[in-house]
Amino acid sequence: MGTFDGKRGLIFGVANKNSIAWGIAQALAEEGAELGFSYAGDFLQKRVTPLAESVGSSFIEECDVTNDAAIDELFAKVGDHYGGLDFLVHSIAFAPREDLGGRFVDTSREGFRVALDISCYSLVALAKRAIPWMPQGGSMLAMTYYGAEKVTPNYNVMGVAKAALEATIRYLAWDLGKEQVRVNAISAGPIKTLASAGVSGFRKSLGYVGSVAPMGNVTQADVGNAARFLLGDWAQKVTGEVVYVDGGYNIMGAPEMDSLEG
Questions:
Q1: Which of 127, 135, 163, 189 fits a disulfide with 246 by CB distance 3.0 to 4.6 angstroms?
Q2: Which residues are annotated as active site (predicted)?
């Protein structure tokens, strides 16, 4: 028997087989979870549908997380299909490509708004609609990155959005704890995904982090394993936390001296 047998949850943010959200989905499916998927836009449907079907999902729905009416419609379908939820995974982030390179000071007003809306406020909007379907309590998990805490060149407005997301995690944890709903985040090391491809200089950053982190770079599967813990019954009193799954990169103050020679 799996540790998630009988548990039902929604996963937002799968774009293809390389997505962090897909690594989480695979880990939860291995534990027996019943998974529903939401994708953003028709162009992703062809990628998400076969992946979702491969783990036995029968709930695959489009949802524009910038549209409250669309979110309401999605959760009405959730109620009809499942009647209740045990967990929700938020792996959604977006900023205009032109704002993910160059100087942060040149971020456009519209780019800032879009990044904060999609990458941060969407969690609030989804949590609000999910709560009525978690009468026995549950767990929510979002994805963040070290660029929320320290400057990561070219991450720019996304770093600000992730900082807001981490604060949102704490405020939601306070709000929803009374209803026995936990809210946490995983701060993953850099991983090659469709989203990371839009960040200028990502390949160089990936190589650097891999050389500095005590345990090297991480994979989608590593994040999925941490998600099993945070979304599962083992973490019943863990809430409002940002858990680093980055090979230990966040503990480092400077690279090894030998690597600086020459």
A1: 189
A2: 145 (proton acceptor), 155 (proton acceptor)
Is 64 marked as binding a ligand? Answer: yes
> Is 65 flagged in the annotation as binding?
yes
Active-site residue among 145, 146, 244, 249? 145
CATH, residue 68 = 3.40.50.720
**107 within a domain of the structure (yes/no):** yes
Q: In the structure encoding, which two tokens stand for residue 196, read together?
A: 């990371």
Known catalytic residue: 145? yes
Consult the annotation and say whether 13 binds a ligand. yes
Catalytic residue from among 39, 121, 146, 155 = 155
Asked if residue 192 belongs to a known ligand binding site, the reply is yes
Spatial separation of the C-alpha atoms in residues 173 and 75, rounded to whole Å? 21
State the Cα–Cα distance between residues 108 and 157, nearest whole angstrom. 9
Question: Would residue 252 count as lying in a domain?
Answer: no
Q: Which of 10-14, 32-36, 37-41, 209-213 has the lowest mean pLDDT?
A: 209-213
pLDDT above 90 coverage of the chain, percent: 83
How many domains, the chain?
1
Alpha helices (H) along 97-156: 109-116, 122-130
Q: At what angle do helices 157-177 and 122-130 cross, to 10 degrees?
A: 20
Q: Which domain holds residue 225?
A: 8-247
- Tell me the C-alpha distance between 65 and 74, whole Å: 10
